[in-house]
Amino acid sequence: MDTKIIFAIFFTVLTFSACSRSNFKWTEDVLLQDGQQVTITRALEGLEAFGGVGDAGGTEHKATTITFPPGLAGAPTAPLSTHFNPMVLNKTPQGQWYVLAIIQICEDWKQIGYPKLPYTQYNWTNGAWQQVPLDPVHIGEEANLLVAVHRKSGEPPHHTLESKRAQDDAATMFSEDREIVNRWNTSCVNSKGTSGHLKTEDKPK
Predict the structure, then answer these.
(1) Of all residues in the chain, what percent carry a pLDDT higher than 90?
(2) Does 12 map to a domain?
(3) 189 vs 5, 18, 93, 113, 180, CA distance in Å?
(4) Does residue 187 lie in a domain region?
(5) How does pLDDT run across 57-106, given as a tens digit for each residue?
(6) Structural domain harbouring 172
(7) What residues pair up with 179 in beta bridges, in sequence order?
(8) Are 144 and 31 in contact (CB under 8 A)?
Protein backbone atom coordinates (compact mmCIF):
# COMPACT_ATOMS: atom_id res chain seq x y z
CA MET A 1 0.00 0.00 0.00
CA ASP A 2 1.22 3.50 -0.83
CA THR A 3 3.03 5.18 2.07
CA LYS A 4 0.93 8.33 1.69
CA ILE A 5 -2.30 6.31 1.94
CA ILE A 6 -1.06 4.53 5.09
CA PHE A 7 -0.13 7.85 6.66
CA ALA A 8 -3.53 9.32 5.74
CA ILE A 9 -5.36 6.38 7.36
CA PHE A 10 -3.20 6.60 10.48
CA PHE A 11 -3.76 10.36 10.74
CA THR A 12 -7.55 9.92 10.35
CA VAL A 13 -7.70 7.28 13.09
CA LEU A 14 -5.53 9.39 15.39
CA THR A 15 -7.65 12.48 14.79
CA PHE A 16 -10.90 10.57 15.40
CA SER A 17 -9.54 9.10 18.64
CA ALA A 18 -8.47 12.51 19.88
CA CYS A 19 -11.82 14.08 19.03
CA SER A 20 -13.84 11.26 20.58
CA ARG A 21 -11.88 11.13 23.83
CA SER A 22 -14.10 12.12 26.78
CA ASN A 23 -13.07 15.07 28.92
CA PHE A 24 -12.82 14.23 32.62
CA LYS A 25 -11.08 17.43 33.67
CA TRP A 26 -12.88 20.74 33.75
CA THR A 27 -13.16 24.05 35.59
CA GLU A 28 -16.31 24.85 37.52
CA ASP A 29 -17.82 27.99 39.04
CA VAL A 30 -19.02 27.46 42.61
CA LEU A 31 -21.23 29.81 44.63
CA LEU A 32 -20.43 29.72 48.34
CA GLN A 33 -22.98 30.33 51.08
CA ASP A 34 -21.47 33.75 51.87
CA GLY A 35 -22.10 34.87 48.28
CA GLN A 36 -18.50 34.53 47.10
CA GLN A 37 -18.01 32.82 43.73
CA VAL A 38 -14.86 30.80 43.10
CA THR A 39 -13.63 28.74 40.16
CA ILE A 40 -12.11 25.33 40.87
CA THR A 41 -10.65 22.56 38.73
CA ARG A 42 -12.13 19.08 38.92
CA ALA A 43 -11.02 15.73 37.51
CA LEU A 44 -12.12 12.09 37.56
CA GLU A 45 -9.71 9.16 37.37
CA GLY A 46 -10.20 5.43 36.83
CA LEU A 47 -13.82 5.28 35.73
CA GLU A 48 -15.59 1.91 35.90
CA ALA A 49 -19.22 1.55 34.84
CA PHE A 50 -21.56 -0.52 36.98
CA GLY A 51 -24.98 0.87 36.10
CA GLY A 52 -26.63 3.44 33.88
CA VAL A 53 -24.05 5.84 32.50
CA GLY A 54 -24.71 9.57 32.42
CA ASP A 55 -26.16 10.44 35.82
CA ALA A 56 -24.84 10.21 39.37
CA GLY A 57 -24.49 6.61 40.50
CA GLY A 58 -23.86 5.22 37.01
CA THR A 59 -20.15 4.62 37.52
CA GLU A 60 -17.56 4.22 40.19
CA HIS A 61 -14.26 6.09 40.06
CA LYS A 62 -10.94 5.53 41.76
CA ALA A 63 -10.50 9.19 42.57
CA THR A 64 -11.98 12.61 41.98
CA THR A 65 -9.94 15.70 42.69
CA ILE A 66 -10.76 19.32 43.47
CA THR A 67 -8.01 21.89 42.97
CA PHE A 68 -8.21 25.53 44.02
CA PRO A 69 -6.73 28.37 41.97
CA PRO A 70 -3.42 29.73 43.24
CA GLY A 71 -3.62 33.03 45.02
CA LEU A 72 -7.17 32.65 46.34
CA ALA A 73 -6.96 34.17 49.81
CA GLY A 74 -7.45 31.63 52.59
CA ALA A 75 -8.22 28.78 50.17
CA PRO A 76 -6.75 25.26 50.51
CA THR A 77 -3.30 25.04 48.95
CA ALA A 78 -3.47 21.28 48.31
CA PRO A 79 -5.98 19.44 46.09
CA LEU A 80 -8.62 17.24 47.68
CA SER A 81 -8.62 13.68 46.34
CA THR A 82 -11.48 11.38 47.33
CA HIS A 83 -13.02 8.10 46.21
CA PHE A 84 -16.47 9.48 46.95
CA ASN A 85 -18.66 11.87 44.95
CA PRO A 86 -18.34 15.52 46.08
CA MET A 87 -21.62 17.42 46.43
CA VAL A 88 -20.90 20.51 48.51
CA LEU A 89 -17.91 22.83 48.65
CA ASN A 90 -18.17 25.63 51.18
CA LYS A 91 -16.59 27.35 54.15
CA THR A 92 -17.91 28.01 57.63
CA PRO A 93 -18.53 31.54 58.95
CA GLN A 94 -15.16 31.11 60.72
CA GLY A 95 -13.48 30.57 57.34
CA GLN A 96 -12.84 26.80 57.45
CA TRP A 97 -13.21 25.16 54.04
CA TYR A 98 -15.02 21.83 53.80
CA VAL A 99 -16.30 19.35 51.22
CA LEU A 100 -19.27 17.02 51.69
CA ALA A 101 -19.26 13.87 49.56
CA ILE A 102 -21.79 11.10 49.08
CA ILE A 103 -20.83 7.43 49.44
CA GLN A 104 -21.08 5.57 46.14
CA ILE A 105 -21.67 1.86 46.80
CA CYS A 106 -22.50 -0.58 49.59
CA GLU A 107 -18.92 -1.78 50.06
CA ASP A 108 -17.79 1.80 50.61
CA TRP A 109 -20.53 2.28 53.22
CA LYS A 110 -19.15 -0.79 55.00
CA GLN A 111 -15.54 0.40 54.78
CA ILE A 112 -16.40 3.78 56.26
CA GLY A 113 -18.17 2.21 59.26
CA TYR A 114 -21.88 2.21 58.31
CA PRO A 115 -22.67 5.89 58.95
CA LYS A 116 -26.31 6.76 59.61
CA LEU A 117 -26.37 8.98 56.52
CA PRO A 118 -24.51 8.23 53.24
CA TYR A 119 -22.00 11.06 53.48
CA THR A 120 -18.47 11.84 54.57
CA GLN A 121 -16.84 15.20 55.24
CA TYR A 122 -13.43 16.69 54.53
CA ASN A 123 -12.15 19.71 56.47
CA TRP A 124 -9.16 21.84 55.53
CA THR A 125 -7.30 22.00 58.82
CA ASN A 126 -3.70 22.94 59.61
CA GLY A 127 -2.66 22.86 55.97
CA ALA A 128 -4.15 19.46 55.11
CA TRP A 129 -7.46 17.79 54.30
CA GLN A 130 -8.88 15.67 57.12
CA GLN A 131 -11.70 13.19 56.61
CA VAL A 132 -14.26 13.26 59.44
CA PRO A 133 -17.83 12.05 60.00
CA LEU A 134 -20.58 14.31 58.68
CA ASP A 135 -21.30 17.21 61.04
CA PRO A 136 -25.13 17.33 61.49
CA VAL A 137 -24.96 21.12 61.14
CA HIS A 138 -24.65 20.56 57.38
CA ILE A 139 -27.95 18.67 57.03
CA GLY A 140 -30.17 20.51 54.57
CA GLU A 141 -27.33 22.04 52.54
CA GLU A 142 -27.98 21.83 48.80
CA ALA A 143 -25.37 20.55 46.37
CA ASN A 144 -23.38 23.38 44.81
CA LEU A 145 -20.95 21.16 42.88
CA LEU A 146 -21.79 19.38 39.63
CA VAL A 147 -23.14 15.99 40.69
CA ALA A 148 -24.52 14.50 37.45
CA VAL A 149 -21.16 14.16 35.73
CA HIS A 150 -21.45 12.80 32.18
CA ARG A 151 -19.12 9.88 32.64
CA LYS A 152 -19.61 8.61 29.08
CA SER A 153 -19.43 11.77 26.98
CA GLY A 154 -17.34 13.79 29.43
CA GLU A 155 -17.74 17.44 30.35
CA PRO A 156 -17.11 20.75 28.59
CA PRO A 157 -13.90 22.58 29.51
CA HIS A 158 -15.83 24.92 31.83
CA HIS A 159 -19.11 24.84 33.75
CA THR A 160 -20.95 27.99 34.78
CA LEU A 161 -23.47 28.08 37.62
CA GLU A 162 -26.25 27.97 35.03
CA SER A 163 -24.86 25.02 33.04
CA LYS A 164 -24.34 22.97 36.22
CA ARG A 165 -27.86 23.67 37.42
CA ALA A 166 -29.36 22.69 34.06
CA GLN A 167 -27.38 19.44 33.91
CA ASP A 168 -28.25 18.39 37.46
CA ASP A 169 -31.92 19.38 37.07
CA ALA A 170 -32.21 17.21 33.95
CA ALA A 171 -30.61 14.18 35.60
CA THR A 172 -32.28 11.24 37.31
CA MET A 173 -30.79 11.26 40.79
CA PHE A 174 -31.69 10.28 44.32
CA SER A 175 -32.83 13.07 46.64
CA GLU A 176 -29.71 12.48 48.76
CA ASP A 177 -27.58 13.51 45.75
CA ARG A 178 -29.29 16.89 45.60
CA GLU A 179 -29.03 17.90 49.25
CA ILE A 180 -27.73 16.57 52.56
CA VAL A 181 -30.78 14.68 53.78
CA ASN A 182 -31.72 13.91 57.39
CA ARG A 183 -33.33 10.53 56.67
CA TRP A 184 -32.14 7.76 54.41
CA ASN A 185 -33.19 4.21 53.53
CA THR A 186 -30.85 1.58 52.11
CA SER A 187 -30.95 -2.00 50.88
CA CYS A 188 -27.29 -2.45 51.85
CA VAL A 189 -26.96 -4.74 54.85
CA ASN A 190 -24.55 -3.87 57.65
CA SER A 191 -22.90 -6.15 60.19
CA LYS A 192 -25.88 -5.79 62.54
CA GLY A 193 -28.27 -6.98 59.84
CA THR A 194 -30.03 -3.65 59.32
CA SER A 195 -30.45 -2.28 55.82
CA GLY A 196 -31.61 0.59 53.57
CA HIS A 197 -30.44 1.57 49.93
CA LEU A 198 -27.37 2.93 48.22
CA LYS A 199 -27.60 4.02 44.61
CA THR A 200 -26.16 1.29 42.47
CA GLU A 201 -28.49 2.26 39.63
CA ASP A 202 -30.28 5.40 38.50
CA LYS A 203 -33.59 6.31 40.08
CA PRO A 204 -36.06 8.98 38.88
CA LYS A 205 -36.35 12.22 40.83
Answers:
(1) 52
(2) no
(3) 59, 43, 37, 12, 21
(4) no
(5) 445 567 899 999 998 989 999 999 998 999 999 999 999 999 999 987 88
(6) 24-178
(7) 142
(8) yes
